Amino acid sequence: MPLVTITMLKGRSKEIKKSILTEVHDALVKCFKIPNSDRYQRIIEIGPDNFEIPSDRTKQCVTIELTVYPGRSLDAKRLLYKDIVERLEKLGIVSTDILIILNEPPLENWGLRGVPASETTIGFKLDV
Question: I want to staple 79 with a disulfide (CB 3.0 to 4.6 A). Which of 31, 61, 111, 127 is the partner?
């Protein structure tokens, strides 16, 4: 159950925002083997007065924060980072404008159906 938050400057079209969400989700399905239906995503658009980026980045700069269940291997993470960048480059976002942050709270810090995720069946494999 990845929670995806993509932060960007305001001004992109509805279509490009949907494409970004789709590409990040498809990379998670491919690299972390999550179910295709497992889609918790949001885009946060911020005005330039409230989103400072390094001077060597462009207005296409995005941060992608992924909060995921722990358990994926470093190889799976490497594959995910590479796959996301390759997918977003096809949308015109250069690799230097993409920052990916992966958070992995322990399963007991996730509440599913009223119980800690560590005490229930998640429904998919974490050790990929």
Answer: 31
